């Protein structure tokens, strides 16, 4: 069982270490709006959800290397999605993972998303990068 907790300033080094371990760290990363998945007080996964007026942008999602391939990312997404009432967007090179969870690839978002430059998408795999969305459930 995992505990979902809001990250504090003290969690910053652990978040950075995890993102570096899984090659998801980018130089303009801001240590805000992170949530942590912990098991027995040990960090297992992180997610960063940046709020905007009309949507939420998922900027980071990472699972510790020793805990990968155990559906933890799916569990973390489910845990944070149940409390999110806005559409959630992200840029990803693994759209199939998200599509299995009900996300949709889109060509033209209905909102103005942040640019890809701060996330260093050009240094990743820009030819594979797509925009994907999880539409909020109607209330």
From TrEMBL:
Task: Name the InterPro entries on file.
Answer: Acyl_CoA_acyltransferase, GNAT_dom
GO molecular function list = acyltransferase activity, transferring groups other than amino-acyl groups
Q: What sequence ranges are listed for the domain N-acetyltransferase?
A: 2-124
Xref: SUPFAM superfamilies: Acyl-CoA N-acyltransferases (Nat)
TM region(s), chain numbering: none
Name of the molecule in the record: N-acetyltransferase domain-containing protein
UniProt organism field: Candidatus Saganbacteria bacterium CG08_land_8_20_14_0_20_45_16
> What does the organism's lineage look like at the top?
Bacteria, Bacillati, Saganbacteria
């Amino acid at each position: 069982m995992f505990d979902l907790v809001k990250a504090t300033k003290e969690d910053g080094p652990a978040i950075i270490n995890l993102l570096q371990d899984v090659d998801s760290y980018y130089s303009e990363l801001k240590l805000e709006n992170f949530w942590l998945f912990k098991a027995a007080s040990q960090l297992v996964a992180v997610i960063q959800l940046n709020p905007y007026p009309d949507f939420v942008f998922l900027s980071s999602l990472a699972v510790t290397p020793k805990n990968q391939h155990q559906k933890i990312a799916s569990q973390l997404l489910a845990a944070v999605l149940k409390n999110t009432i806005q559409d959630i967007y992200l840029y990803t090179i693994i759209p199939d993972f998200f599509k299995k969870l009900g996300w949709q690839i889109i060509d033209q978002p209905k909102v103005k998303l942040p640019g890809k430059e701060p996330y260093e998408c050009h240094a990743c795999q820009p030819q594979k990068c797509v925009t994907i969305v999880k539409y909020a459930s109607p209330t």
